[in-house]
Design brief:
Number of domains: 2
CATH topology of the largest domain: Arc Repressor Mutant, subunit A
Oligomer: single chain
Order of helices and strands: HEHHEEH
Strand content: 15-25%
Largest sheet: 3 strands, antiparallel
CATH class of the largest domain: Mainly Alpha
Radius of gyration: 20 Å
């Protein structure tokens, strides 16, 4: 779902369901979970909802994981130095 929304364009449930084995109901449920998490947002266009990616929460998680990864790299380097000395 998220990968289909990374092109920066709003997409309907029909478009997001196309080419998958998922039902519209399953896609809708998944989109609502993502919307509640702040990862996507819906915009009402006429009679249909269209969805777009909200990249800020994903960027925040990526930055945090990079920070944690650097901490682990430093800890492993200290352990390696301790063991080899």
């Amino acid at each position: 779902m998220i990968s289909k929304l990374t092109n920066g364009k709003r997409q309907s449930i029909s478009h997001l369901t196309a080419g998958t084995n998922l039902t519209r109901q399953a896609v809708t449920k998944h989109l609502h979970v993502l919307e509640n998490a702040g990862i996507v947002r819906s915009i009402r266009v006429g009679r249909k909802n269209q969805f777009e990616l909200e990249p800020k929460p994903i960027d925040d998680v990526r930055e945090y994981l990079e920070y944690v990864s650097k901490q682990w790299d430093n800890a492993v380097a200290r352990l390696k130095s301790f063991v080899e000395d």
